[in-house]
Amino acid sequence: MTATTPSTGRDWSDTVLNAYLALFYAYLFLPLMLMVAAAFNASPTPSVTDWQGFTLDWFRRLPQDQRFVQGLVHSLIIAGGVIVIALPLGLSGALVLTRLQSRATTSLYTILVSPILTPGIVLGVTTMIFWRDSFGVEAGLFTAAVAQASFIASYCMLMFMARLQRQDRALEEAALDLGASPVLVFRRITMPFLMPTMITASFIAFLQSIENYNTTFFAIGSSWTLVTEIGSRMRFGLSPTVNAIGVLFVALTVVAAVVWVLARRRELARSGDG
Amino acid sequence: MNELVRTYGRGLTSVFVLLTAAWVLGLIVVPQLRMIERAFIVDQRGDEAALVATEIERAYARVFAIDQDLLRAADGAAAPPAPSPFTPSPTAPSPFAPSPSAGGSAGGSGDPGRIAGLEAEKAEARARIVELEAREAEIQAADRTTYALGNFTGMSRIHAWIFVSTLFYALCVTVLSFLACYPVAYAVATARRGERVALLMLGLVIPYAINELLRIFSWVMILEKQGILNGVLDALGLIDMAAGEGVRFVASNGAVFVVMVYAYILFMVFPIYNTIETLDRNQIEAARDLGASAWRIHWRVVLPHAKPGIAVGAVMTFMLSAGSIAAPEIVGRGLHPDWFSQVIYRRFFESSNWNQGSAYALVLLVACVVFVLVVMKLFRVGIRDIAK
């Protein structure tokens, strides 16, 4: 009898927890599902309660919308720039931090991760001011890329650091002892070891860049990206074309997330076997 | 440093060090210093120049008005105008028709006193313009920028209030997110079956990865006057939308708050999940076997272990909501009391007062830094635990 009492207590608390989980996930997904549904509604204001028939019109209009298309091009240019800037910076920072045995490490670390903890609009503001005051460069695609890179590089650095901490240094030592040049060691041992992180970091940097709004909004001046254009459309009222873009985003995200979770499970399973 | 050189040689090491230095200086420290510098530059010239410019504008407008009056007076003074095709219908009193008094005083000079008065006034206005323009040139020439606290002390009462309420709302978002997320993070981290974990994770990753703007947008759709919530109320017969009834939920601080919780809640889930996942489950089992209640297990075992995660979640959620410009801009449509991020935006792009904008941005930054420090102190975690 004494053994069953706690277990019924646990059953009860499990039920409560499961009910709460269901509620939480409904809270997460219901608005998004409504947004997706409204993209297929013929009603000119995005709605699901006022259903005026199924349509794909809002999707057909997307490629004709010059500002959206141009914004997407800008977004891709910026994302490319961010990867080019942030990856080398993040890698260098990670290498310096993991190999630097100095009291300054903590200060340097604090400075290098500070952009993550800084509000996005402050990053946009500082970049905009710096480039205009120091070099006379007006805000535009370039400053947007630099502003984004300042914090995306920190994320890349953390990813590289996590990987470097698992590195077996003996391999590098052995290669050096056998007379390999440092450049060769870096190219043949360190780089291949970091390759998976390079790919993940590029991917994350790309996503972060494309999605960024707050920093870009300040740093981009009179130009625009896909996301800032969506933002400025929303301020002037809602349109189902935004829903259509939303559906595309959601579809891409779902695919990427499923791939990610499956890959993670496989990795977990492998580490469990080993 | 020695180890770096030993492994990668002088050449590569200097490349890494240079890149890191470029990042620290060019992307982080110097831009910050530039902003801080601007925050303390008080441009007295700016205010005065703007004042003079408006006065010049006003003087020109005055001259133009006098010219118009003069024309009219001259017309009135001339002999009754010849009937022109543009003359309005005879019944309507034409503004150009001679006034009885002007007509009576016979042709030629009309109302010489009035015209002379206008001419004098015009000359005076002209002189004032010359004077003002000289003053403007003088202001432009003189460098009157000084380092002072004016940009901070000059913050209006309204802006200060917006700042305080923004921080208050951000704090509420943070606390509410924690309360909502802790059970979820715990449930996902302690789920046993693989499929269940994968599914639950997927359910968190998908909304997390969907663009912030779209998450905001989905809620604006719900809260709009013609939106889904009002549609539901209509269907329930509580309001009649056809008659134009409906609650305008958007454009209030409450709406911004609701949307922000939705937009940033998941930044709390993942850090807490990551820490709880590393907790040895035997500890929970042991506590349970020893008869600890569920509350006690959480309070004494799980929560202490999750501290670093909670700290990260709190910092991220607070920083994102305090600094968010997307949510207040889109939900508020400029109709609700401003968010502090919007005040900063307006300083830069509407009143183009970059110095004060910098000061405000600095105030926001300091508030966030203070928050990070307080959280680190409260949860007794270091910077390395925070940024992982």
Describe this structure in words.
The complex is a heterodimer of chains A (274) and B (388). With 274 residues, chain A is mainly alpha-helical. In chain A, 79% of the residues lie in helices and 0% in strands. Chain A folds into two domains: 1-32; 65-244, MetI-like (MetI-like fold). Chain A has helices spanning 4-38, 57-61, 66-99, 105-117, 120-135, 141-165, 169-177, 182-211, 214-219, 226-235, 240-273. The longest helix of chain A has 35 residues, at 4-38. Residues 1-5 of chain A have low confidence and may be disordered. Chain B has 388 residues and is mainly α. Chain B folds into three domains: 2-43; 45-79 and 107-150; 155-386, MetI-like (MetI-like fold, Orthogonal Bundle). In chain B, 75% of the residues lie in helices and 2% in strands. A two-stranded antiparallel sheet of chain B has the order 1-2. At the A-B interface, α1, α3, α4, α5 and α6 of A face α1, α6, α7, α8 and α9 of B.
